[in-house]
Amino acid sequence: MRKYTLHSIICLLILQSNVSYGQIRIAVSKTYETYDSWLKKADPTVVIVNMYGRKTDSALMMLETCSGLLLTGGEDVNPACYGKENELSKCEEIDNYRDSLEFTLIRRAVQLEMPVFGICRGEQILNVALGGTLLTDIPTDIGTSVIHRSAANTGSPHVVDIDRKSILSKVTGVTRDTVNSYHHQAIDKIAPGFRISAVSMNGVAEAMERYSPGTKSFIMAVQWHPEKSTCKPELSRPLADNFLRHIKEYSKSVK
């Protein structure tokens, strides 16, 4: 059961009173124009709610007015969050506030059985928040047989193989294709209750999805960037459409 202080209840009621009936609101961990456009191309009527910069209590209350959570790309997750603090030197920019905010949002969204979708860093922090770990630097840990990020950060493309039995394959109709790539970290140990649904030619995880019989909530993430123009259409728009379908179903269920 949810527990709130009187002040929190009043604030939540005020927030909900300002939400138009039938409005589909999507919480985004940190908004950028490309992510907003990607979602709005799938449904121009959705409202994007930026969570970044909010205090924890405010973010959690705002999440209650939304029907889905999108975790976007960005900085490295602090390796101390998954027991590899001794590998900090292999990391690049870190935002500890963002880590803390997104951990809180993910855990609450899971409790609410709210649809969650992660992109790039979004996949990585989703995996860590739910009990998994990361490779702190792919070139060092795996090698360079596949380039996951070009020196100029232009999204060096590479091939991915998608599990034929996965939800990802059913949604996209794809089992092998080329994706854009902008990362140097990736899933190491997968979180309990999830499975890796796509891999690159050197075995690096490129997508994850919930695999827990009996649970109804939708959670999926990909390592590539479906919101960018460099992404192939079949690995972009279907992911947005599917995410929005789950969001709308969730919105109806909690009314």
Write a short abstract of this structure.
The chain is α/β, with parallel strands linked by helices and 255 residues long. It is 32% helix and 18% strand. The strands form two sheets. Strands 2-1-3-4-11-10-9-6-7 form a nine-stranded mixed beta sheet.
Task: Give the strand line-up of the largest sheet.
Answer: 2-1-3-4-11-10-9-6-7
| Largest sheet properties | 9 strands, mixed
Radius of gyration: 18 Å
Q: Helix and strand string, N-terminal first?
A: HEHEHEHEHEHEHEEEEEH
Subunit arrangement of the protein: single chain
- How many helical stretches? 8
Kindly describe this structure.
It is a single chain. The protein is α/β, with parallel strands linked by helices. It has 8 helices and 11 strands. It has helices at residues 6-17, 33-42, 56-63, 96-111, 121-129, 138-141, 167-172, 237-253; strands at residues 25-28, 47-50, 69-71, 116-119, 134-135, 158-162, 176-179, 186-187, 194-200, 205-210, 219-222. It is globular, with a radius of gyration of 18 Å.
Tags for this model:
255 residues, 32% helix
Walk me through the topology.
Blueprint: H1 6-17, E1 25-28, H2 33-42, E2 47-50, H3 56-63, E3 69-71, H4 96-111, E4 116-119, H5 121-129, E5 134-135, H6 138-141, E6 158-162, H7 167-172, E7 176-179, E8 186-187, E9 194-200, E10 205-210, E11 219-222, H8 237-253
Parallel strand pairs: 1-2, 1-3, 3-4, 4-11
Antiparallel strand pairs: 5-8, 6-7, 6-9, 9-10, 10-11
